[in-house]
Design a protein that fits this description.
Distance between the termini: 9 Å
Shape: elongated
Number of helices: 4
Structural class: mainly alpha
Number of strands: 0
Order of helices and strands: HHHH
Radius of gyration: 17 Å
Largest sheet: none
């Protein structure tokens, strides 16, 4: 089966990520939810870009189809934690308050929830694979 054209999804993912970036920079929030959402958004956008570039125009067997979507989920899950920690350090360095927006407990929270969010990304990626396959069939 031919791999679907994901160029619209890639464009939409990066547009939404850019909007989230500007909202996140302006918000003086001391929680980790927004930074995790932004990290997830960047990770998904980067992963779907890689998937689109790899699969564009290819004809894949059933097994390779699922492996490609699984790779999309795994790459997003692996990148989520480091990206979120990088975003935390960027926000702390940009704002330079006496009391930083994020402290060690926030970093530890991100590390604690990273596997759960990563598993969620993996499940969502496989769900996207099911949807894409259903559109083709």
């Amino acid at each position: 089966m031919r791999f679907p054209d994901l160029s619209r999804a890639v464009r939409l993912a990066w547009i939404l990520t850019g909007l989230m970036w500007f909202v996140w920079l302006g918000v003086e929030d001391r929680g980790v939810v927004l930074v995790l959402l932004l990290g997830t958004s960047i990770s998904v956008a980067a992963s779907i870009t890689g998937l689109e570039r790899w699969g564009k125009g290819r004809i894949l067997s059933g097994r390779l189809w699922w492996i490609s979507w699984l790779g999309f989920g795994i790459s997003g899950a692996i990148g989520l934690g480091p990206l979120t920690l990088l975003l935390i350090s960027v926000k702390v360095s940009l704002h330079s308050h006496e009391l930083p927006d994020f402290n060690l407990s926030h970093v530890l929270q991100v590390i604690d929830v990273w596997p759960i969010w990563g598993l969620g990304m993996l499940i969502v990626a496989l769900g996207f694979g099911v949807l894409a396959r259903a559109q083709i069939d």
